[in-house]
Amino acid sequence: NTLIIEISCENLDRGKLNYCGEVLKGGGTVVFPTETVYGLGANAIYEKAVEKIFKAKGRPSDNPLIVHVTGEEDVIPLVKAIPPKAKEVMDAFWPGPLTIIMEKSSRVPYNVTAGLNTVAIRYPAHPIAKALIEAAGVPIAAPSANISGKPSPTKASHVIDDLDGRVDVIIAGGDCSVGLESTVLDMTTDIPTILRPGGVTKEELEGVLGRVEMDPSLLTGVLDISPKSPGMKYTHYSPKAEVVVYAGEDESVVKAISNKANELMANGKEVGIICTNETQHRYKKGIIKPLGSKKDMKTIAAKLFSTLREFDETKVDIILAEALEEVELGQAIMNRLVKAAGYKIYRV
Ligand code: TXA
Ligand code: MG
């Protein structure tokens, strides 16, 4: 039985938070909002509690978890050492949507890191997440709070759909403002390497670190290059309908999607279209969902996962999606969209 507790950011209820903190400390599971997506939390230094996370979301045990803390001091017992450059990015981007990979200490159980000698750590900015971790008094391991393979949850209703009955507590705390998961940055390599693009962009990281690399598996989108971030090899973010992405000049993309939609609908298929505010009026048929203006990538990022989930409610057979430019936040957005499409991307 899952207890659903509503907490508002404006008026943090300490009584409720202390209760949830006790559940975590005692080895239970609590879903909580962060600024990126909802997380499925358990006490990170309690192996039996961590096991429950994998079970609840059906997550393969070779995919490591992120450990959530509320300050640089909390990192010290979890790692061998904090590299000076890691400290620089912490100072610049924490609390926030950045996860940092460092060498782990013996304190971190191997089921958290899926057997790796490194650990992923993040200090989230969301007031409920911060207050909850503080109330628990222990570091909190938390993957995104979705059933493995589904789009990450950005609203309490998404979590309830996926995990009601599978966790001890769900904190319903409103919508996640970033809407895409954190950037995963490996600080154990000579040149810092992005393993997953996210809320903090490569451009922003370069502003602090100088040179930053992207993991080769991100650049090619080819699955047979073994990714360093084990999570990147699984199918992800998939709505029920098939997704296909179209990339190119606006004009040719609108034409290609419109033609394809016409053809599919003539064959009795229901078609969904993911586009932008700028192009939405160009489409005449299908269920058309603009994510926002191209000039406002933050809104597009925040709406992507909820839009993919909305299409599960409509009975579309296929979703045709416009690609976005892969700069700044566009890198993270395209990474998720292309994965949702299982790498089916047409250049037109
Ligand atoms: O925004 C987020 O990061 C959310 C919120 C809840 O904090 N969490 C999240 O967790 O997205 P999850 O488990 O869905 O994604 C964690 C990613 C996976 O791709 C995993 O493979 C990678 O981080 N990861 C974790 N530990 C790692 C490690 N030691 N080395 C390389 N990659 C690691
Ligand atoms: Mg996830």
Automatic annotation (TrEMBL):
Alphabetic keyword roster: ATP-binding, Cytoplasm, Nucleotide-binding, Nucleotidyltransferase, Transferase, tRNA processing
Transmembrane helix keyword on record: no
Catalytic activity: L-threonine + hydrogencarbonate + ATP = L-threonylcarbamoyladenylate + diphosphate + H2O
Residues of the YrdC-like domain: 14-200
Pfam families (alphabetical): Sua5_C, Sua5_yciO_yrdC
GO molecular function, one term: tRNA binding
Nucleus is among the record's keywords: no
Subcellular location: Cytoplasm
UniProt GO cellular component terms: cytoplasm
Single GO BP term: tRNA processing
Principal localisation: cytoplasm
EC number: 2.7.7.87
Positions annotated to bind L-threonine: T36, H68, R122, S182
Family matches, as PANTHER family: SUA5, THREONYLCARBAMOYL-AMP SYNTHASE
Described purpose of this protein according to its UniProt entry: Required for the formation of a threonylcarbamoyl group on adenosine at position 37 (t(6)A37) in tRNAs that read codons beginning with adenine.
NCBIfam families (UniProt xref): L-threonylcarbamoyladenylate synthase
Assigned protein family: Belongs to the SUA5 family.
Protein name stated in the entry: Threonylcarbamoyl-AMP synthase
Native species: Alkaliphilus serpentinus
